[in-house]
Amino acid sequence: MMPMFQRIExxxxxxxxxxxxxxxxxxxxxxxxDKLPPERELAKTLEVSRPSLRDALNELxxxxxxxxxxxxxxxVADVMGSVFAEPIVPLFGKHEKATxxxxxxxxxxxxxAAGYAAKRATAADRTILKKIFSAMETAHExxxxxxxxxxxxxxxxxxxxxxxxxxxxxxxxxxxxxxxxGVFHNRKLLYENPGARDRLLEQHRAxxxxxxxxxxxxxxxxxxxxxxxxxxxxxxxERAHSxxxxxxxxxxxxxxxxxxxxxxxxNEQETV
Length: 272
Description:
Four Helix Bundle (Hemerythrin (Met), subunit A), two-stranded antiparallel sheet, about 70% helix
């Protein structure tokens, strides 16, 4: 029979370092590509010996959570994106059903994430959101569609981070990675539509204000309404883009035919 009390095991220093770095990666504090401080500095911060730190880093490298670059330091490995296998990722941008399902998924989950953020956001989380939203306003004033699209991803990532749910953080970062990788090539069409740009900014403002004020239901509703608009606006933008492409091809064909007819007429005149 197992006794009620168990002997307390002494934890190795390197194991404690491993657990701390694991937690930082899992909670999204350390992100793929982030560089760790130099060994001497990190050992001093953690108040551990360099050999103990080196043992911990070696273990994390063996488990592919960290990667060392010759003469360039130690970085957090690209541990995101495991939700989708590599051959599947490009298919999302090519197949309409996959894109629609992607947006449908986000419509539901973004509301949950915003609700958690409103309930759990810390002062530091709100400061991060304030900085990102301020940058969004600046990009909007400059009418910089590329920057707005990039900040859109950062804003939603910060909302998820503020919810402090590890599963949501890891899952949605994998989802957002599709946007950053340019899988959805026509995403910028939303921001190139002047009317949509204004509405998107106001929708992000509504989410931001609801989260910062701690209004859970308002945050959920604002996020869901935002994604409903994105789905509708994307369909409208796609149709407009398709019409534009078709009309340009039609014009090109007419002009080519006209050039051919003119050349034929000149040849006939020369023959006569």
